[in-house]
Each structure stands twice: as C-alpha cells, then as structure tokens.
Amino acid sequence: MSTNAPDLPALEALIGRFRGRRLLVLGDMMLDRYLWGRVDRISPEAPVPVVEIERETETLGGAGNVAANLQALGGEPVLVGVVGADPDGARLLDTLRARGVAVTTVVRDASRPTTVKTRIIAHAQQVVRADRESRAEVLDATREALFASIAAELPTCQGMIVSDYAKGVVTPALLERALDLARRHRVPVSVDPKEAHIDAYRGVAIVTPNVQEAGYAQGRRITDEASLLEVGWGLQKRLDADAVLVTRGADGMSLFEKSGRVTHIPTVAREVYDVTGAGDTVVSVVALAIAAGADPVTAARLSNHAAGVVIREIGTASCTPDQLRASLANGAPR
Questions:
Q1: What angle do CA 132, 160, 300 make, to 5 degrees?
Q2: Pairing of the two strands 76-84 and 22-27
Q3: Which pLDDT tens digit goes with each residue over 87-112?
Q4: How far apart are CA 172 and CA 267, in angstroms?
Q5: Which residues are identified as catalytic?
Q6: Alpha-carbon distance 126 to 42, whole Å?
Q7: Which domains does the chain possess?
Q8: CA distance 278 to 182
C-alpha cells in the first residue's frame, strides 16, 4: 500500500507533454442549462420556494465536457457522440465550437432529443434539476455512423475515453467493436463508467468510478477501508483492467493496479462548491496523462489536482495547465 508524496517536478513536466496529444472521446453528450435566481417567498400553490430567475447560462456536460477539458489542457479531442436535430442540439454544437472543439464527428439524430439537464440555482444552492432525454439505445444507422468515425479516427489517436452516462450512445455492441479496434491499434482506453455496462469494459487501461458506482457495481456499499479494498480489487480482477481508480470525494482517491499495488491519494481540495463534472475532469486528465507517457499513479495524482480546481466552481468547469501548475505549487488549487 502506498501513500508516498508525488514527484512535483515530474508532474509539472507531464503537463508540458499534454499539448498535441490526440484522444478520441466516445460518449453521451448533453447540454447543462443553469437558471440562476433568488428565493424571497414560498409559493401559495404548494410548499415550494419561488425562484425569481435573474440569468441563464449553458455549458457542456458528459462527453462534451470531457472534450472541453482535453482542449483546455492542450490536447486535441476527437468527439464521437450524438445530438438531436433540435435547437438544443444546435446550441450544444455552437458551445463546443466556441470552446475550440471540432464537431465533424458528432452525429445529429432526428429520432431523439438532445439531452438537456436544467438546474435551478438559488443563493448558490441547487433547488431542483429537470432532465429532458431519451435513454433508449441509438438506432442501428446512428450506431454504424458512430463506429465509422471511430474506425477512421482511432488509428491516429494516442488514447480513447469512454464517457458513459447510460443515455443510449455507449451500447455493449458498439463498445465491443470499439475496444477491439483500440486493442488492435494499441490505444489505451480510459472509462468513466456506468454500472449497467460494467462488464463491457473488460481489458481497458483504467476505469474511474466514484465510490457509489464502484460499490453498486460490486453489490457492496463502501463504508470503511475493508469494504473499499474488497470492492476495488474485486472490480480490478472482474474487469482485468490495468487499473481501477475509485474517486472518494473528500476522502481522495484509491488506485488499484494489476501489479497488486494500491495507492491512496488524499484530496487537495480545500473548498467544495459543486462536484458536477468532476468525474469528467478526472477521466480527461488521467487519459491525457497516460497518452503523454505517465504511469497510472502519476496520472491519478495529477487528476486529483485537476478535480480540486473544478469543484471550486458551480457548474461544469475545465482546468487549464496554469491552474494545474498553481495547484501543484501550492498543494491545493487556487
């Protein structure tokens, strides 16, 4: 078991190797909409607060947020996903372009709506979330279009990320073909998983579940170190993954490697405002670091700093190289 301090010069050098690394991102895309306001009264119609909306913002969620994180860190994302042929889909694509992310490999499917998560925020607190989505598997024609893009782009990539939110894009059939292609081209695959598809990720480089997802997948709630070790090693052996990184919120991260080593990484976050999108940031940095030649422990340590940066902001956010360097210099993000 290891908790050794990180090699800060090595981590800083790794950030410099991010630029130009090309990673394919396959997954569920979504638009995160935020309605910001304040509460001064309770509704006379029901015992609920009345939020007076003052402004509205939109940002990227899911695979789009992963791609934006890669772009912000100097990588070159190839985003393979689906949006609806609707105004929300157009806005999502415009938002990606504004962040410098190419959308030529995104499929527009008129048979399904663009996934939109609308959060109402009052006084910096989320009051309610409303989702518009379809969780049905994509049509056969859409799946084939997605795989055609994967087959065309993956050979020139140094890594692949699967951002699985169980919204119908990441299906077992598509995953099997994509992972087989990645193995043939020796492209390391990093997965932000959903429990329903857990056994489809066999043989990947790293899986990054949070503590709830890991426990659910193994049918055991993580409550102490013994249950953490049982779940972490159980998942690693079940998937035959090179590594399993369990993100544990305020308790940091625990990395289980095929070699038999477990590394516990304490959190660097001092302030937590919103964990939305933190998993996207973790898998982005882990995959980018591995593509740049890092070992799993180094990749996990760097992702821990990146997560500490983004959870200080409300809503999904990206981490820049300068922010990462500042976090490494100070021991915590600023």
A1: 95
A2: parallel
A3: 999 999 999 999 999 999 999 999 99
A4: 33
A5: 280
A6: 16
A7: 8-30+60-115+133-330 (3.40.1190.20)
A8: 25
